[in-house]
Amino acid sequence: MDNKTRDLEVEFQARIDSGENIEAKDWMPEKYRKTHIRQISQHAHSEVIGMLPEGNWITRAPSLRRKVALLAKVQDEAGHGLYLYSAAETLGISRDQLMEQLNSGKAKYSSIFNYPTVTWADIGAVGWLVDGAAIINQVMLTKTSYGPYARAMVRICKEESFHQRQGYEIMLTLCNGTEVQKAMAQDALNRWWWPSMMMFGPRDEDSPNTEQSMKWKIKKKTNDELRQQFVDQTVPQAEILGLTVPDPDLKWNEKTGHYDFGELDWEEFWNVVKGNGLCNKKRLADRNKAWDEGAWVREAATVHAEKKANRRLNKAV
Ligand code: FAQ
Prior knowledge:
Helices cover about 70% and strands about 0% of the residues. By secondary structure, it is an all-alpha fold.
């Protein structure tokens, strides 16, 4: 590294340490830029792929009210994907490149969306647990050091909070319903609990990106800190529902003021991340199908934009 770059890096770190936001046109270390493209694009892809498990239930929602709420939620996820792709584009990568990385299977997205939604209670569990975990992670990101990402997260968090409530309300209704409905809710919790815990990523000691990301305030809390926050927040919510969290090692620890919990199945986690989960192949196939079927829309939008630009040009001449 030459002296000039070293000076720029020192100055950059000082800005981060003093709590300043970094903006798109500011100088930044190449690794900071690349880490952001990686994280923001994985996040955007998660929102887009995340529409699929819930989209599965739009036509089968049990009432008009449930259908309207679920439709609105799934549309919100599409919007989150778009804000995030726009934030990633400010770092010098194009939308086409981002889409190619997703559709070809090169890019990662959250492991959680490779699990199937087999009953209506799963839609409740996804809202309650998956959006619940997402909010814990994302509230931290509203204070992340890169301005365009932090600003996108403010609006996203507001919407995620509605998503979490609609999920919890589905669970509450099922738990106050018949024995069969309550059993459905318990079964959904049993299947979604551990995958939701995995959303926070590997243990801190196995997380190659955490140390640098904390220094750059990309992350303000570690994977394990956020996971603990999720457990502490969610266990009392399960108690209100009258459901049992499927972890025999879960217990309140007076000394630490937190819940102790059992070990996650890390083999399952890495297996899903590597593309071998229950639904990885289906998710990618569905995504590619939607992309191919949307080709005419992209083409029409491009022609329309060109026509508009030409018209403007002709008027100006
Ligand atoms: N799944 O060193 P770390 C949502 C990868 S949005 C798959 O700890 P990092 C809304 C990681 O990328 C949910 N891969 O990595 C919604 C890295 O691989 P790489 C998504 C994972 O980045 C709700 C490697 O493991 N949220 O749910 C996972 O510092 C309902 C080593 O890990 C975000 O993306 C995983 N769970 O920390 C939508 C939030 N965990 O790239 C629809 C933003 C880790 O080096 C319906 N992202 N990996 O090859 C983050 O905060 C961070 O990226 C973490 C991971 C915390 C996810």
